[in-house]
Please model this.
Amino acid sequence: MATIKDIAEKVGVSATTVSRVLNYDSTLSVSYETKKRIFEVAEEVSYKKKKSRKDTSPKRIAFVHWYTEKEELDDLYYMSIRLGIEKKCEFYGIQLVKFFQGHDKEMEMEDIDGIIAVGKFSNKQVNELYKISKNIVFADFCPDDETFDSVVVDFEKATKKVVDYFMKQGHNKIGYIGGQEVFKDQTAKIEDLREKTFRFYLSSKGLLQEKYIYTNHFTVNDGYILMKKAIEDLGQDLPTAFFVGNDSMAIGCLRALHEEKIKIPDRVSIIGVNDISVSKYVYPPLSTVKVYTELMGEASVDLLVEKLTSQRTVAKKVLISTKLKIRQSS
Model:
């Protein structure tokens, strides 16, 4: 496993700076570019190197991200998917043209063979992309599994894994801290399978309590604010365990618990989702559901290459499994 020192040497900053950036230290004054480079290197060093392979007929495809570059820094889940796409394209010898949110209209001027769309897209946005190219793969989203290729995560099973683990550890007061998303064109809210499954599964076990559920956005700061609110609202009735919608939010939850001098995991256990590279560097190291984000990116490229080379007309949906990784926060 790469160390903080390894990351620091690659970026050209001190190990202390790397540690503070990876722990989302809000008091640290560091440039956006330096922060971005630290996170990217942290993600890159977790990959196994692949031998490059030349493609006799390279393709030119577009990568469309529903996030802006700044938003991506607050949710490294999507950064990791992007890096997986980039590395697989390099492996195939494919030219990748990237478009972040706000710049995707420029794609209409490009000569491309297909599109990989990462994130959540409204029906209107899906139709706009379809006008540009019929060869589309959606990563982390499936607008229509009979029409479009997609790569998604089995969040239903992942959520049940977490609840089962907490129950096995003797927890019967289990909370949820998560985010709510809307399409970028504000046309509708997006149903979150983690929260939906959490409610249904705990209800089936007779353990669901609405007062233990807090949601806002999927950011570090929102995790911090929501945990602070839970501590203030619930006092001694604070759940002994929280399932948190992603690792970024979980890191904010850890900070809030530290500030309130609430011991982790003695008083409150935390499990996040994604297993972003940062998770193993925070204190205590974060228990999380490993989502194979780099594999999601790679599988998206594989699907598109297959579709382009075989002229396949039947849509494929790839469901990526997860793995529960227990560290010191639970």
Remarks:
- The longest helix spans residues 293-310.
